[in-house]
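If your schedule permits, I should be very grateful for your opinion on a structural question. What I wish to show you is a protein chain and, alongside it, a tokenised description of its three-dimensional fold. Would you kindly read the sequence against the tokens and tell me how you understand this chain to fold? Here, with my thanks, is the record as I have it:

===
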Amino acid sequence: MRLSFRISGKVQGVGYRWFVKETAARHNVSGWVRNVLDGSVEGEAQGGIPAIDGFLKELKAGHPWAAVDKAETQEMLDQETPEKDFHIKPTA
């Protein structure tokens, strides 16, 4: 399964991208995450359905310094990416 996600709220300046990367590693999810100029965080994630479900559940819960107001996801039906890890991209 491959999807895009956007997380809004207090998610910049609090280590949220690193939290996302660590969460992806725990769930064996590949993809990327980056800050967006509007204050949100966006990314793509790819993995098995149980892995993606657990990954998204943790992203929505956030971590102690973040405050997630909204989490949007959209399944991507195009070809899977060859990425095998999860990385942080520069701000969009």
Summary: The two ends are 24 Å apart (CA to CA). The first helix runs from residue 16 to 27. The mean pLDDT is 93.
